[in-house]
Write a structure and sequence with these properties.
It contains six helices and six strands. It is of the alpha+beta class. It is globular, with a radius of gyration of 16 Å.
């Protein structure tokens, strides 16, 4: 199986809203109206990566905190298709998928914490990264581990307890 950059969002609960829409609904600072077929109108979303709020849902990407390609390289390549799909659509932990400014998400691309951090709230991002990696049993390579240790020290994120429910 090969990596794919395109995510096929699922409608896991059969309510007509796919994973992208579910995240938009759950993360809205000003709740949108949800019509038939999960038509979303209105709403406001805050991207903590760049501290920008959006009222245009088209400007909000749903980011895999640990990108799909990084997950693949960290162990997901050995998973079944169903497990990879469950990861790509994980609504079981709010840290796995988050709404962020589209251009910032595109700049992040498939980079790990050794290569990219958001401009703001870096400790939150590092906690989210570790939580997702642990939740899914993904490995951490040496450059990633070194970057995590350095960043935790640099940004004063040390001594934080992270609670995770394992997905697998």
């Amino acid at each position: 199986m090969h990596r794919t950059r395109r995510t096929l969002w699922d409608d896991a609960d059969g309510d007509g809203c796919d994973t992208r829409e579910e995240v938009l609904i759950s993360e809205a600072d000003d709740p949108p109206s949800v019509g038939p077929g999960c038509t979303i109108t209105g709403g406001r979303w805050f991207s903590y990566y760049d501290r920008v709020s959006w009222t245009d849902k088209g400007r909000v990407d749903i980011d895999h905190v640990v990108p799909l390609a990084e997950a693949w390289d960290s162990g997901a390549g050995t998973w079944t298709t169903a497990t990879r799909e469950a990861y790509a659509n994980d609504l079981g932990d709010y840290r796995t998928l988050i709404g962020v400014t589209d251009s910032v998400n595109q700049a992040k691309d498939d980079q790990d914490v050794a290569e990219w951090l958001p401009t703001y709230d870096r400790c939150r991002y590092l906690r989210d990264w570790v939580a997702v990696k642990h939740r899914w049993g993904l490995t951490v390579d040496s450059s990633e581990k070194s970057a995590l240790a350095a960043d935790v020290s640099t940004y004063g994120c040390a001594n934080t307890t992270i609670t995770v429910s394992l997905a697998r």
